[in-house]
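Thread: Modeling a multi-component assembly for a lab meeting

Hi all, long-time lurker, first post. My supervisor asked me to bring a structural picture of a complex we are working on to next week's group meeting, and I have zero experience with this. I have the sequence lines for every component (330 residues in total). Could someone generate the structure of the whole assembly? Inputs are pasted exactly as I received them:
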Amino acid sequence: MSEQRREAGLAVVHSVWISDSAPTFEVTAPRHLALIRTDSLLRVGREGVSRTATDAPETATLAAEVERLRRQLEEITADRRGESNLHVEFLRLAATWRRDTLTLSSSTARNSHPALRSIIAMGKIAVPWILRDLEDNGGHWGPALRELTGAQPVDRADAGRVDRIRAAWLRWGHEHGYL
Amino acid sequence: MPDGYSVSFPRLFGSRSVLTSDVTERYNCIAWAAGDATRWWWPDPDFESFWPIERREETLVAFEEAFASLGYEPCADGSVEDGFEKVVIWALSGLPTHAARQLRSGAWTSKLGAWVDIEHAIEALEGPVYGAPERFLRRARTEDESAADRP
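Re: Modeling a multi-component assembly
Sure thing. I ran the full set together rather than chain by chain. Output:
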């Protein structure tokens, strides 16, 4: 077994070891990194980040793999910082939109408000944030969700039924993994 | 009242307005004026909101037709007329923004978007958000409507 520690931004490449079956790279990271993303190369869990290879590379290849993993973690950390900043911006825009449209009935005025347009411009990354806001605070988020996702889970017979519209979108969010 | 609303409704402050409900987004001004406290009414093309007629467009004509479907007809003003219930439609730059219903006292009842209901003088809501009253409509009060001012 070999072990290596390297600083990787907020993350630390904690250890590398070779078991009988496959080399394993284990990386520990602050807890907030554990919610970042997973892909075929990197597994991210609440206790840290690890990668398991299916074949056994040479030692030099192993070091290169650790370095590649370290860089990937740096990218993830940077992504996470950017996403976090974007989420803060979403919360600010959502509060502005809610305040400015509180006394309006017009869907046109609501949907064309600059704060909502900025949220929609964020793209699909905003969908889970919108759904959580809808769950917590209600609001007429349906047109924004439709524009972002192309989905229309609300029955026309429920037009105007705010509680049913909310329930339909939250159900859709759960079914599609956004909540 | 939330910060900044003295700008949106400059005439509401100092007028004899009364808060008459909790905050709810279940219904809006048009629904409330029409006597429906269960749905959000607006002629949006996406069917997010309820609208009682096929014509879904943000025009005064479409709003007059919607209330006509409930038995309302145009009238001259918002004066109290025995036996009639009145509705007023506000507009800003020609686009409908708000509606209110007249109570037997002559005061008006409004739902302010997703916020609260108030009783108010008709001029209290004039300003940069709702504009001004543009259309007055009336219909004969039924016995039920004579017995109670709210749905």
